[in-house]
Amino acid sequence: MPERLYLDHNATSPLRPKVRDAMLAALDGAHNPSSVHAEGRAAKRLLEDARATLSEVLNTPKEGVIFTSGGTEADNLALTGMVRGPARIRRLMISGVEHDAVKATAKALSEQGVTVETVPVTRSGVVDVDWLDRRLSGYDVETEGNFLLCVMLANNETGVIQPVEKLGPMVWPRGGYLFVDAVQGFGKLDVDFTAMGADLMAIGAHKVGGPVGVGALIVKTGLAFEPLLRGGGQELYRRAGTENIAAVSGFAACARDASPTDYKALAVMRDEIAASLPPGIVVWGKEASRLGNTLCFSAPGFASETQVMVMDLNGIAVSAGSACSSGKVRSSGVLQAMGANASEAGCALRISLGWNTPADAPSRFVGAWTKEQNRIAANSAA
Question: Which residues are catalytically annotated?
């Protein structure tokens, strides 16, 4: 029986060998980095070496790297910390294609009196910059309050890349701040925090072969916010709790090993799959810049849940979109924000390639998927 084919790297990518080695080495001497004895100082060195690695990869001062339990916590910390902190954010502007961690946090804050506004996207999935410019041209910070614009760098479902470098200059003169969720873009794109112009940015490790359960919030120098977790003085009092040295060491190893060039090269396989699909298939975001590893398409008459199940039975792991829905397959809110109707959203499939995807992945996927699609079509016609 052929080995299973894993095409769900945007959910979680298998651990890279160099990451595993770094984590095992750290586990051998895992101690509390807040302790002042020799063992604690050794753990502290591992922690600060990891922070320095991320600082170098992302072009940001070391002091701006705050380790968290993952991208979801970093999203929560960014939004809630800015609302409760000295910036006194009173309005959140959220793009229509944000991750549920951002949407759910915004919803919770709206119940505490914060105004939440949705920024529309085009059918290609790109933030409508013209709409945003018109909205901000008359923005009155005195009456509407300071605001935080939240935009995902690269979408987890479609791979569409947002022009975030254009947004800071639009936001700052109007009393706003920019938060970028770069969890899906980290390691796949050349992410330069300083050049990007963000005030805050979330990243995570496990989408590109790092460990699950570790991420970071990157914060511009001098920007103050309120911590979510209180306790000790870890992370310069911005995130209490003893740091996970093994996970942080793996995160740094992943940052060194993951190559954006390699992910861009995966576009060849992605496009080979897309070109082999039958007529009538809608490829989402194809007009926009996308992550090279991500393909999202809708197949009329072939329900998302059915596609996921039959491909699994064929030994191929794919998904219907975000993996953060408690294992449930549901219609994509991202695609609906892009103008998809209920039928299109309900028959979408996401393929996401990764660092260890074999060269025969396109032919294996297309062969199995076409066979199942023909079978479903024949049964429907009978």
Answer: 324
